Amino acid sequence: MKTELFRTCPESGLQFHKPAENLMRIHAVLAVVMLLIGGLSALAVTLTRWPAVHLLPADKFYQLLTFHGVNMLIFWIIFFEIAVLYFCSSTLLKVRLATPRIAWIGFFLMVAGAVVNNLAVFGGNASVMMTSYVPMPANPNFYLGLILFAVGALIGCFVFLGTLVIAKEEKTYEGSIPLVTFGALTACIIAIFTIAMGAVILIPTYMWSMGWISHIDAAMYRLIWWAFGHSSQQINVAAHVSVWYAIAAIVFGAKPLSEKVSRTAFVLYIAFLQLASAHHLLVDPGLSSTWKIFNTSYAMYLAVLASMIHGLTVPGSIEVAQRSKGYTKGLFEWLRKAPWGNPVFSGMFISLIGFGFLGGISGVVMGTEQINIIIHNTIYVPGHFHATVVIGTTLAFMSLTYFLIPVLFRRQVFLPGLAKWQPYIFGISMMVFTLVMMGAGTLGVERRHWDMAFTDAALGFDYPASAYTLMGLVGLSGTAAIVGGAIFVLITVVSVFFGKRVESESNYGTATTRLLKAEPTITPAGGHEAAGKFGFAAPGTFAMAIFFLAVFVVYYAVNWKYLASVWPMS
Amino acid sequence: MTSIQPPAEAIWWKQPLDRVEGTWIAIALVWSLIMFVMMPVWHIYGKQNLSNEAYRTTASAFQAKTQAMVDQYTVRTMTDQQIPVVKPPPGSDVYLLGRLWQWWPILELEKGQTYRLHISSMDWQHGFSLQPQNINLQVLPGYEMVVTITPDTSGDQTIICNEYCGIGHHTMVGKILVTEGGS
Asked: Is omega for the bond preceding A135 within 30 degrees of 0, making it cis?
């Protein structure tokens, strides 16, 4: 064991292995590059959907929308997730990273895949959206780029698993792996399933685009593509929930309410998420209602239950930690006295609230077999997934980045006063953005559509004025969110490349103790319920959860009511 | 120990549940089951369900069936493109095809009557989006979907394509006209 390759961060106490550190840095940097170009295309797309601006011509709009989807949903998020996997294995377990050279091969494959795919889209004959539904053809390099990227990501997953094996073998920890590493492990397992599904559908599609296969069935394509496409979003959920737990631990020293519950909830994700492909096929021909109901509910909503558990246990663990520090007044003193000026916390908390209230509720509602009839392919759908993937995943990753800038990159955060506001600017405008999109979708406005006025069409249609107002607000709030995103990119890039160094020393060879010892917990007399109320350890969190449930129930009922008003169908 | 460290107790799975967690899990599980049951319940009591009746077909076979209906029941044409307006008898099978970039033909239906609407695509994937009703269905080439519909409002409904289908996607607009009917 070469201890000269390890350094301890004096502020956080985390220990970094040099090759792992370099890989985490390069993946995080590439992720931000992807976020930057994805953000620029987001601006063009938003300004085109803003009816009063209608910036781009149709061909450029569809091209940049494809570019935006792939760069954000795949490249930005997965580059960052590989960094998270290396952090959760090598850093949290204080162990050397397995096969760094092979990890670099994975990295270069991901870069090559991203470049090949983006060049195909820029070539102009691959404006097929991220979903590339057959039989609409794309330049073969569109699929080839995705395949290369996926192989690279798969290598990253195996490096993560290898690192866990080394940590076990070299006994760098006692007992079980930490909860956050456990969450990352579930993300990794889901990622392997996802990439396998991607291979099953993208390789034949590539062969079809090369002319080696004559036909791909449209319904089969959708079924398997979504086993890849939706599962990949479940990687994000597992990853950003892990990041929430990590931030609760970093900022508050929070421990899980119970390891058993949180870990079981992660296992539920693995057990049921592969059914999620059904959400996208609820109004497709060729599938039975029995199949749709079982699958869209993830087998009776057991994966939804998992998210509802994390939604309670993450803030609950913060509440318990805060109460044990003496913030015990009323239901919410622990929350009022939280460090709202620290972007690591504020971003994480906005992410949690936005993901649950906006992304979670809308996702379950529109994934209901019959309610999907009034929502499928309207702009409600991107409204939903911007709440899950942007407020949920992206904002959680941004928060973690504010922590990583000093700890991993050893730089001070540039413009800390602005960084304090960034999660609010980004998070709140994104919340408005998703809400107005969902509103417009309820009025029937379509997603992936260049002209809601249908000016060139032989037959016309006028949306109500309220739909135009809502789409105007989509443009405004979207632009505001992009400003928030640009501030993040600015702060990150300047901090990492030009920022002042952190003053304290963190030299290699400073790793003192390699063994992560499990210390016995000090439970206050009467258990940690003692600091709570009504026998509940986290009464404030419980009250918020009940409020969440009330909103959920009302919104669910409203949508059934709306469905009941459309033409009878059978 | 915090969430980024190994659990303090080696046998963590035997720790008792917090009351706050146990209560919430029970509530959330009940809600999950209610939502699950709502879907089959709506199949029994609700009026908006898809029968999921569907057949494999080909573009030429579906085109021929649509053409036969158009030949038999066309009452007039609309627009410069002379799009036929078809008025099939109540209770009959009516056909609608989607192709780049048109919904064809225009259907004229009677309010309160029931029709078996067959939809398919001649080329790429399309999305049937009936506005302002806001009924949205996926239309795939090679599959003929049958939906039994009963228009219960009169007036014009517009069919918009809501599955991206290339550069002319936004011009793919069709109509279903609903008349008050004789009765």
From this structure: yes
The two three-digit tokens of residue A68, written as one number: 């935006």
Q: What DSSP element (H or E) covers A16?
A: strand A15-17
B80 Cβ under 8 Å from any chain A Cβ: yes
Contact B48/A253, CB-based, under 8 Å? Answer: no
Q: Which amino acid is at B166?
A: G
Residue B182 contacts by C-beta under 8 Å, 6 or more apart in sequence? Answer: B110
Cβ contacts of B60 within 8 Å, gap of 6 or more: none
What ipTM, to 2 d.p.?
Answer: 0.96
B143 touches chain A (CB under 8 A): yes
Task: Give the burial string for B98-134 (b: 16+ CB within 10 Å, else e).
Answer: bbbbbbbbbbbbbeebbbbbbbbbbbbbbbbbbbbbb
Average pLDDT over residues A102-118: 98
Residue B88 contacts residue B121 (beta carbons within 8 Å): no
From residue A51, give the alpha-carbon distance in Å to each of A262, A431, A454, A475, A479: 45, 20, 12, 8, 14
Helix axes A140-169, A179-209, angle to 10 degrees: 150
pLDDT at residue B182 in the model: 63
Q: Which two tokens stand for residue A128?
A: 């097929």
Using the 8-state DSSP alphabet, how is residue A503 labeled?
S
State whether A569 and B50 contact (CB < 8 Å). yes
A55's CB contacts (< 8 A; 6+ apart) are A44, A47, A48
- pLDDT at B134 (0 to 100): 97
Query: Any CB–CB contact under 8 A between B155 and chain A?
Result: no
Position A524 scores a pLDDT of 47
Q: Considering only CB atoms, which chain B residues are within 8 Å of A369?
A: 39, 42
Question: Who's near A407: CB < 8 A, 6+ residues apart?
Answer: A9, A11, A12, A14
Picking from B28, B33, B147, the nearest residue to A569 by CB comes out as B147
Fold classification of A15-452+462-502+533-563 is Cytochrome C Oxidase; Chain A (1.20.210)
Query: Which one, of B36, B37, B26, B25, lies nearest residue A300 by Cα?
Result: B36
Q: Is the dihedral of CA A81, A82, A88, A91 positive or negative?
A: negative
- Pick from B21, B49, B140: CB nearest A569: B49
Determine contact: B91 vs chain A, CB below 8 A: no
Mean pLDDT of A60-67: 98
Q: How far is CA A68 from the centre of its chain?
A: 15
Contact A73, A130 (CB under 8 A): yes
**What is the percent of chain B with per-residue pLDDT over 70, rounded to a whole number?**
99
Check CB contact of B98 with chain A, cutoff 8 Å.
no
State the sign of the Cα–Cα–Cα–Cα dihedral A47, A51, A55, A57.
positive
The pLDDT value recorded for residue A530 is 60
CB contacts under 8 A, B 30-69 vs A, are 31-33, 35-36, 38-40, 42-43, 46-52, 54
Q: What angle do CA A408, A513, A167 make, to 5 degrees?
A: 75
Q: Is the pLDDT of residue A48 over 60?
A: yes
| List of domains in chain B | 1-49 (no CATH), 53-179 (2.60.40.420)
Q: Burial of A517 by CB count in 10 Å (0-12 exposed, 13-18 middle, 19+ buried)? A: exposed
Check pLDDT > 70 for residue A213: yes
Strands of B155-161's sheet, edge to edge? B74-78, B83-86, B106-110, B173-179, B155-161, B126-131, B135-139
Closest C-alpha among A5, A4, A7 to residue A408: A7
